[in-house]
Amino acid sequence: MELKVTTLDGAAAGTIQLADDVFGLEVRQDILHRMVRYQQLKAMSGTHDVKNRSEGVRTGKKFKKQKGGGARHGDRKAPQFRGGGRAFGPTPRSHAIDLPKKVRALALKHALSSKVKSGSLIVIDNVSQTIGKTAALRTTFGKLEWLNALIIDGAVVDQNFALAARNIPHIDVLPVQGINVVSILKRDKLVLTKAALEALEARFA
């Protein structure tokens, strides 16, 4: 599969060959759904917590006689009393689920293929900037119609480009090792540098 390469100025910069086994798959929504759920659950903090019966601050003394009138309660920490502990309340835990490594790799391939299929994958030669000016880069993105995009650079993102792009709404910039399914599907366009493409193809080789 062949794709045109452009520059940040919108000029043509040749073509590049994409691997069909990475960018040319028939998209499977079920695999993408499993991966999105895996990422979202793994990102949940799971720090929700309430005080249970053993953590209450009320007295633990039996407040009524066992017999002779009154219900047979043990202490005021019971859930039915005001100020008592919560019954079956949430405690800190991990929400993460397991997903095989091969399925995770396949999901990334399907996410990349979905962008190719919809015509939303753009390849540029590089994103190097001489100065990190947000206003200039916003103008460039406007001319290229990159209003909602994920931009993936090589192992190290150009510092001036990262500084200039970080305050532009709906624009995400990541190094290639940070590429993930949720970030790809979240944005309308996926922009890959030639360095990112080489790293991805080496990763799936």
TrEMBL record:
Comp. bias intervals (Basic and acidic residues): 48-58
Any one biological process term the GO annotation gives: translation
Family the entry assigns: Belongs to the universal ribosomal protein uL4 family.
Assembly: Part of the 50S ribosomal subunit.
Region (Disordered): 47-94
Keywords attached to this entry: Ribonucleoprotein, Ribosomal protein, RNA-binding, rRNA-binding
Functional note: Forms part of the polypeptide exit tunnel. One of the primary rRNA binding proteins, this protein initially binds near the 5'-end of the 23S rRNA. It is important during the early stages of 50S assembly. It makes multiple contacts with different domains of the 23S rRNA in the assembled 50S subunit and ribosome.
Record GO terms (molecular function): rRNA binding; structural constituent of ribosome
Record's signal peptide: none
GO cellular component, one term: ribosome
HAMAP family assigned: Ribosomal_uL4_B
Pfam families in the record: Ribosomal_L4 (PF00573)
Protein name as annotated: Large ribosomal subunit protein uL4
SUPFAM superfamilies per record: Ribosomal protein L4
Phylogenetic lineage: Bacteria, Pseudomonadati, Pseudomonadota, Alphaproteobacteria, Hyphomicrobiales
